[in-house]
Design brief:
Distance between the termini: 67 Å
Number of domains: 1
Number of helices: 13
Number of strands: 10
Strand order of the largest sheet: 2-3-6-7-8-9-10
CATH topology: pyruvate-formate lyase- activating enzyme
CATH architecture: Alpha-Beta Horseshoe
Structural class: alpha/beta
Radius of gyration: 21 Å
CATH class: Alpha Beta
Length: 357
């Protein structure tokens, strides 16, 4: 990619049209030429934090192959800018693009802790693990300013309710004491996403995420403090990080992770266009090869919405990836397992404190 034309620190390099809108915004070449002649920036590339006020925060997950029953998201959109992120498409429901808008228009749910507490206090609610970040990262840069995730953890601890976390940011260590308190009652499971051991790969795939070194250190620190960690090797992208499965698995096992999970990349909705544009600019020498191999994993398409096959893919390349992951699990995770979280304490604390009678 030409560094003069690239938007620094961003994954997507364009805003795709919103499928729900009749009209779209286009950056014309004559406008870009005008800005260049005048010495002006056509795009200031700033992140905006926009408050939103949903009525609920806990979502029931309907997809049968996602691996969680309930999720909650403190933020919509994610400044990490991971080019492959499946959550990009959801930004269109909020009236934005799945491209640059997803990384630069971050919707902030400041009332999330109050909404969570109200949900847990419902008479009908029975404890089931609620996963923070089923969609976007709860420890993305916005969390440094708003601390919504931390406040939600305090609610989970108050009610002794099980919670899962998915993140790729070492900011989670800021809340280590809270996590340790939850782990004492077997109420916490952490999922750290690590897609590569190469910083060069990390920088182009996930431009505003924490470094691989810090992510591995995060796995180690959490594990040393008896906080169970699963590492997500997700997604595996043929000819980009597919060759790293075994060394990556060994590295996270050595850091104390108790299990790994993986998915094969799929590029649904607008992500196909965003990814195709990105790879032709960042890896022009192997763009066609990568795109064709992704298609080979999904019946000739970049996208795949079929339950049971969409996460693992099909065909020879997907089969090789899945076999390598199975081998890695047998080699580096024998006799290791994530614990089942405790759902027994919640009823005693549902009123906000331990019931004596």
């Amino acid at each position: 990619m030409n560094p003069k034309s690239a938007l620094k620190g961003r994954g997507a390099q364009l805003n795709t049209p919103n499928r729900f809108f009749e009209f779209s915004h286009e950056m014309r070449n004559d406008f870009l030429e005008y800005c260049q002649k005048e010495g002006e920036k056509a795009d200031k590339n700033k992140t905006l934090y926009l408050p939103v006020f949903p009525k609920t925060i806990v979502n029931k997950v309907q997809s049968p192959d996602v691996g969680m029953a309930y999720s909650m998201n403190m933020y919509q959109g994610c400044e990490h800018g991971c080019i492959y992120c499946y959550a990009r498409n959801t930004h269109e429901y909020w009236g934005y693009s799945a491209g640059l808008d997803f990384e630069r228009r971050i919707l902030v749910k400041k009332d999330a802790p109050k909404l969570l507490e109200a949900h847990l206090k419902k008479k009908s609610w029975k404890a089931q693990t609620i996963v923070m970040s089923g969609n976007t990262d709860c420890y993305q840069p916005a969390e440094q300013e708003f601390e919504i995730t931390r406040k939600c953890l305090e609610v989970f601890l108050k009610y002794k309710h099980p919670v899962g976390i998915i993140t790729k940011n070492d900011l989670i260590l800021r809340d280590l004491e809270l996590l340790k308190a939850l782990a004492k009652h077997n109420l916490i499971g952490v999922n750290i996403s690590i897609t590569s051991l190469s910083e060069d790969t990390r920088r182009i795939l996930e431009p505003r995420t924490t470094t691989i070194k810090k992510r591995l250190e995060t796995v180690k620190v959490l594990s040393e403090n008896n906080i169970p960690v699963n590492v997500m090797l997700a997604p595996i992208i043929p000819s980009i990080n597919s060759h790293e499965i075994l060394p990556l698995t060994k590295a996270v096992s050595d850091c104390g992770a108790l299990s790994i999970g993986h998915t094969v990349v799929r590029l649904n909705g607008a992500i196909g266009e965003i990814f195709t544009d990105w790879i032709n600019k960042t890896m022009p020498d192997r763009a066609e090869k990568v795109l064709h191999q992704i298609q080979d994993c999904h019946g000739g398409n970049l996208n795949d919405s079929r339950y049971a096959t969409r996460m693992r893919g099909e065909g020879k390349i997907a089969e090789q990836i899945n076999m390598l992951v199975s081998l890695a699990k047998r080699k580096y995770f024998a006799n290791k397992n994530m614990p089942k979280l405790n759902t027994e304490l919640f009823e005693q604390y549902k009123g906000g404190q331990l019931k004596l009678f």
